[in-house]
Amino acid sequence: MTENDATLILPTVTAEGAADDTAVFARVAESPEADAGPRALIELDGVGMTYPGPPPVEALKPVRLTVADGEYVAIVGPSGSGKSTLLNLLGLLDAPTSGTYWLDGHDTSAMKESMRTRLRADKIGFIFQSFHLMAHRTATENVAMSLVYQGIPRRRRRQIAREKLELVNLGHRLDALPTTLSGGERQRVAIARALAAEPSLLLCDEPTGNLDSHTAEAVLATIDELHAGGLTVLMITHDHDVAERAQRAVTIRDGELREGNHVGAPAEAP
Ligand SMILES: Nc1ncnc2c1ncn2[C@@H]1O[C@H](COP(=O)(O)OP(=O)(O)OP(=O)(O)O)[C@@H](O)[C@H]1O
């Protein structure tokens, strides 16, 4: 990924957009539901996605899905089942063609693009199979740069980056370039970057797909610890062993979601 490509997952907010959003965020924070017990961080109601084609492809059939704040949920399915489509919707990288997506109480369907971008930057940290690190930047710079668009001063950005890298046990490799890091270490830099803005949701897209099983275990253990600390984790994977780490698994097949089959999850119609 080039530095330009990085803007796909890094926030790009105008001052105007930020001002609008602050007002909306304040209104939501004042709502009476804010105190009403365990809250849903994610709520999909009839959310579907049909790519226009031609020919049109119904990649995600209208689904309902609720993920509570602090949950660890795996979405598991084979190639072509609609995982990336769902990830792009959940990550506010794409808008659904039907239904309503509430993220932390915000109806994202009605939002302008600038607002969705702002919400994404505030609420969601991403980690991907291929790390997406900038090759010519140190670990600290890779993490710190994710905060550039949030108007955080450079010194503070670097301080946050160091803290997050220490959190994922990379305090001894702060100045290392990605090419000098192992695969597992690179993925931990990516996790540190995802955590920099204190997201509510960690959205993971096959984060161990490029790692050997030993290294994968270490990365998954880091994600377990983050979840134990209260972070909501949504793990997209085709690997049932990876999905087993979650509290709850949801299966996706041919664009249809089915509530999972293990670990304390009450079966629930999609
Ligand atoms: N832009 C697009 N236009 C048309 N069809 C698409 C588009 N993107 C995906 N599809 C189709 O939607 C379906 C779901 O694709 P998706 O990429 O979400 O699956 P996936 O589960 O992530 O697959 P993989 O694990 O192989 O990445 C597939 O049939 C795919 O061909």
UniProtKB/TrEMBL annotation:
GO terms for cellular component: membrane protein complex; plasma membrane. One of its GO terms (molecular function) is ATP binding. Pfam families: ABC_tran. SMART domains: AAA (SM00382). Residues 42-269 form the ABC transporter domain. Keywords: ATP-binding, Nucleotide-binding, Transport. PANTHER family: ABC TRANSPORTER ABCH.1, IMPORT ATP-BINDING PROTEIN. This is Putative ABC transport system ATP-binding protein. It comes from Glycomyces artemisiae.
